[in-house]
Design a protein that fits this description.
- The complex is a heterotrimer.
- Chain A is built from 15 helices and 13 strands.
- Chain A is α+β, with helices and mostly antiparallel strands.
- Chain A folds into 2 domains: about 200 residues, no CATH class; about 90 residues, Beta Barrel (Barwin-like endoglucanases).
- In chain A, the strands form 3 sheets. A 6-stranded mixed β-sheet of chain A has the order 5-6-10-7-9-8. In chain A, strands 1, 2, 4, 12 and 13 form a 5-stranded antiparallel β-sheet that branches.
- The longest helix of chain A is centred in the N-terminal third of the chain and has 35 residues.
- Chain B has one domain: Rossmann fold (3-Layer(aba) Sandwich), CATH 3.40.50.
- Chain B is about 30% helix and about 25% strand.
- In chain B, strand 7, helix 6 and strand 8 form a beta-alpha-beta unit.
- Chain B is globular and about 50 Å long.
- The two termini of chain B are about 15 Å apart.
- Chain C has a domain of about 50 residues.
- Classes of the chains: A alpha+beta, B alpha/beta, C mainly alpha.
- At the A-C interface, helix 1, helix 2, strand 1, strand 6 and helix 5 of A face helix 1 and helix 2 of C.
């Protein structure tokens, strides 16, 4: 090891030995600091990974969804709007969609019922999402009984449970045949929940949307890019209320650290005087204090970040489940693909290490630069 | 070897509580001798000692070490000089609480960053010579007065300095330990070091090994 | 107990004891920090590696989304407008009457849908 490195190692020796003298307090400090970093990093990693996942998944959503509004509210849309649209340039496919919500009083959960396009569901049968299967304890062959709009009980036989890996998008789904759907909800033939259009060229989507609005003034088109932007905005960590709260706690902690460090006790001042008197330069004293702040905050950062990584990507963000669940009964079990945004980690690192290091260093500046003469005086 | 020319130290200059701790002291400290600065408290001997040992700068006057003027040196060089030339022991020992004896002894050498194994060996050699070998891992709070004194001496000697400076070394020792301390001082002199002490303890300034006693009063030398 | 005045010292005096090695206070902490840094870089590598296989992990999910034309994640199943975030109209949060305040916990995490300027 070269000379300057060896010197720093000696300074670190002293700093750590000095911290170890009050090991309970300092380990506690490290623990609390690490915990705050853990919470912040968890929120950050979770929302970033979910954002990316949503972005990737929802690229399969329909290019344009057309809703009909009645008195500002979403209403059913007649099927002959499809004829009124006719053949628009760029639209490769257009069809009506049937989907709706059902509140199941037995478990107080909301289900999303849907008529799938890609398969034919036999009458009286249903394909349920893994979340419903879990909540109601259902498997293939079991019967699910729900109360229809008309008041009668509808018995659905479970034909299949949707894949568990797809829970993030399908946990509460119930796929039924069209006839069953219309009878169950009392939706007359020819009416749909909304219309979906597929557009080949992404750049033509806006033009199509504009034409639709002109053609059908009581409708509202929703573009795929808006869907993606919705989820992008949802997980933007900057706007997260949770993040603001945690950043506030970090700030409070730094203020506390400053307060603790800035009241330099007589004991500490004396020790700095001793160090200078036995031959340490001002620079040595300052560097020694710098190492104290830097090593503690670096350790807190690493502890918190690594714990957060394990929490989010290995333990599926178990601590956040109650927060995200809110009052919902159904909550999807999903494992996120690990994803780390370098810029955010760097920002977290900077805000964890820099303020704390400065907060421990600044208060001793004055003491470190004065003559050690005061030590001699008794 | 160490020359002081009209050295003056004034505290709180210009303020109502202005204090002239040292006033126009001129003194020569001979090498390889034991010099004792004697006087009542408030006589300025501690201040004078701290200026000789480069812990403080004089307000006016010059201090020369081997003919080299120390007063004008920037802090970095002053600290280097202090480290290499002077070793200190303080009246209240001023050991770092909570650290072991060995760690305390090695501290002054940290900025010089020697090889760790060699530094430990050096420190242990010193501790052995002062009978502290089996105390090396003990916390300094657990030491008796005499042991703490000897630890402080080991610390002062870790960088092998020419001059050892001791401020009121026997203030916290009984007469037997004080005599023992003076025996150590004699041994150090025999090994070629220069020693400067301050004290108002007769065990110190009346000891046989003391070569010169300088009496201070109100910041000035009484009998040169 | 008494120090031997003759046996004073140079740097390697004759009385140098053969003691054990002294552990440095910084050895373990620095080693742990080093390990932490290695793990940290490991997470970056791990995430980068997993990110390069996008098709593998959510394969079943993407298929389902494409086949069914799904538009939202099933994260917040409390209310209609939290379940289908992108499909919710502007007034669905105030479903019962205009003075009804938004009361679902999830809605505090979920911002209103952005409207593209049209």
């Amino acid at each position: 090891m070269s000379h300057p490195l060896r010197r720093q190692r000696y300074l670190i020796d002293f700093t750590l030995a000095s911290l170890w003298r009050r090991r309970g307090k300092n380990l506690g400090l490290l623990g609390v600091y690490g915990l705050i970093v853990f919470l912040l990093a968890s929120v950050m990693l979770f929302s970033q990974a979910l954002r990316r996942e949503a972005g990737l998944l929802l690229e399969g959503a329909p290019a344009v969804t057309l809703q009909r509004l009645l008195a500002g509210r979403h209403d059913l849309i007649p099927g002959d709007y499809l004829t009124r649209i006719g053949r628009l340039r760029g639209v490769s496919d257009q069809y009506g969609r049937l989907w709706g919500y059902f509140f199941d009083p037995a478990v107080r959960a909301n289900y999303t019922l849907m008529v799938p396009r890609d398969r034919e569901v036999a009458q009286g049968e249903v394909l349920i999402g893994a979340g419903i299967a879990r909540t109601r304890g259902l498997g293939p062959g079991d019967v699910l009984s729900l109360r229809s709009a008309g008041g009668t009980a509808f018995a659905f036989r479970v034909a299949e449970v949707l894949a568990a890996e797809a829970e993030l998008v399908s946990a509460d789904l119930m796929l039924v045949g069209e006839g069953d759907f219309r009878t169950f909800f009392g939706i007359p033939a020819g009416m749909y929940t909304d219309l979906a259009l597929e557009v080949r060229n992404p750049r033509e989507v806006r033009t199509v949307a504009e034409k639709l609005v002109t053609l059908l003034p009581d409708t509202r088109p929703i573009l795929r890019e808006e869907i993606l932007r919705t989820y992008d905005a949802l997980f933007q960590w900057r706007q997260g209320i949770v993040f603001v709260l945690l950043a506030g706690s970090l700030l409070a902690f730094v203020i506390f650290a400053w307060d603790r460090a800035s009241g330099l006790s007589a004991e500490e001042r004396r020790e700095i005087g001793i160090l200078k008197a036995i031959g340490w330069e001002t620079g040595d004293v300052l560097r020694m204090k710098f190492w104290e702040g830097a090593l503690v905050s670096l350790a807190a950062f690493l502890l918190g970040y690594l714990a957060a990584y394990a929490h989010v990507f290995l333990a599926d963000a178990a601590l956040f489940a109650p927060v995200l669940k809110g009052w919902a009964v159904l909550y999807p079990q999903f494992r996120l693909v690990p994803y780390v945004d370098g810029l955010q980690v760097a920002t977290l690192f900077f805000f964890t290490v820099f303020p704390y290091t400065v907060a421990t260093l600044i208060p001793i500046w004055r003491a470190a630069t004065t003559d050690p003469d005061a030590v001699m005086r008794g | 070897m160490i020359e002081l020319c009209e050295v003056t130290k004034v505290f709180h200059e210009g303020l109502p509580n202005e204090l002239r701790a040292v006033d126009g002291v001129s003194l020569t400290i001979a090498p390889n001798r034991i010099t004792v600065l004697r006087g009542p408290s408030g006589s300025g001997k501690t201040t004078l000692l701290s200026m000789i040992g480069c812990l403080a700068r004089p307000t006016s006057g010059r201090i020369l070490l081997h003919g080299r003027n120390l007063s004008g040196l920037p802090e970095r060089f002053l600290t280097a000089v202090r480290r290499e030339t002077f070793g200190f022991t303080f009246q209240r020992f001023n050991l770092i609480q909570g650290l072991s004896v060995l760690a305390n002894v090695m501290l002054p050498a940290y900025p010089l960053a020697p090889d760790h194994g060699e530094l430990v060996a050096r420190a242990r050699a010193l501790l052995a010579q002062f009978g502290l070998k089996d105390k090396e891992a003990a916390r300094v709070e657990w030491l008796s007065g005499g042991e703490a004194q000897r630890t402080a001496i080991c610390r002062a000697l870790i960088n092998d300095p020419e001059v050892l400076i001791a401020d009121e070394p026997t203030a916290n020792l009984d007469s037997r330990l004080s005599r023992e301390f003076m025996g150590i001082m004699d041994g150090l002199k025999a090994a070629g070091r220069t020693l400067i002490l301050t004290s108002h303890d007769p065990e110190v300034f009346e000891a046989d090994c003391v070569d010169r006693v300088v009496t201070l009063h109100d910041g000035a030398v009484l009998d040169p | 107990m008494t120090s031997d005045p003759e046996k004073t010292f140079g740097s390697t005096g004759p009385g140098a004891p053969a003691g054990g090695r002294v552990p440095r206070p910084s050895t373990w902490p620095l080693a742990l920090l080093g390990l932490g840094l290695v793990l940290f870089l490991g997470t970056l590598g791990h995430a980068a590696w997993r990110g390069r296989q996008p098709a593998a992990a959510p394969g079943a999910q993407r298929e389902l989304v494409a086949r069914l034309g799904l538009s939202d994640l099933a994260l917040f199943t409390e209310a209609r407008y939290t379940r289908h975030l992108s499909q919710a109209d502007l007034h669905s949060a105030f479903q019962d009457h205009p003075m009804a305040l938004d009361h679902f916990p999830s809605a505090s995490l979920v911002p209103p849908t952005p409207i593209s300027g049209r």
